Amino acid sequence: MNRVYNFSAGPAVMPVEVLEEARENMLSLGDTGIGVMEHSHRGKPFVAVAEQAEANCRKLANISDDYAVLFLQGGASTQFFTVPQNLLSKDKTADYLVTGSWSKKAVKEAKLFGNVNVACSSEDRNFCYIPKECSYSDAPAYVHFTSNNTIFGTQFATEPAGPAGAPLVCDASSDIFSRPIDVSKYGIIYAGAQKNLGPSGVTLVIIRKDLIEQGPSDLPSMLQYRTHANNDSMFNTPPTFGIFTMGLVFKWIEKQGGLAGVAQKNAAKAKPLYDYLDGSSLFKATADQDSRSLMNVCFVTGDADKDAKFIASAKEEGFDGLKGHRSVGGMRASIYNAFPAEGVTALVDFMRDFEAKNG
Ligand code: PMP
Prior knowledge:
By secondary structure, the chain is α/β, with parallel strands linked by helices. It is built from 10 helices and 14 strands. It is globular.
């Protein structure tokens, strides 16, 4: 089988080791004679899988008992409304840091439930940077930010320091567990799995327990965090295969040296690409230098025809998924945790060659 270099923004490349272990367990989970997707979620073997996945997650990110770790459905997009539905109301204000299309979508949903103060925005320059200053409201219900902007290729270097006492809520969909994170600084961290954690269909939510109880209890059961927390994410049938695979990915990250280990690898992996872009006279990185993402590297030639030619010739050479999002144009190389370093080196060689012929 010829696996190509997959630069997809998500669903994205997964560790081969994890895929192989998943493949084995698809036919029989351990020696049960029943595949992982075929087991009842209430049976002992799957309950053990879910417990192990949670334990691996807690160990990896050093998550204390003050937090619940939930495996939910509906993607990060469901968290866009579940967070305000549980934590915001018409007489309250939540602060949002608007650094891309996903933050804007989160704002739109929050406005259905209460007031939104846009504490900062980088929309004036098509989201090519992370703002340095924020203007917070007096006592926001929470402060929401998107740690990595998948479409625009920008990333917060560290979490913003919101006003004291305001829970920090983070959409970490595209950089979760790509570097160390001090969970104790957050109220809620959520992420769809399909970039750094596994297959689509499962959403990781790490939530401080006191916030779970703040939510109204007259919401539909599925929309209350307490329902999921009180039932170990098994109020209804959970995404069993996703949970299993996520557990394998946590274990794989641990083997890479944990979050510090992957962070070091991710920095070393992105560097040759950014270095090349900085020296190139054909290609140019679109994000400001101090805001660059280590997960999504966006670049353009400035000529749409050349971009298209580049993307087509790259695909022929086995570099897939490089087309940028239409709101930025050009190219985007998504190089999440599982993307191999040699794929980036190979891409840089290919770009250098393309520049020599087309520059
Ligand atoms: N937030 C970010 C930062 C994303 O990149 C995405 C998906 N690309 C989403 C939210 C939406 O996630 P989902 O498709 O899981 O709802």
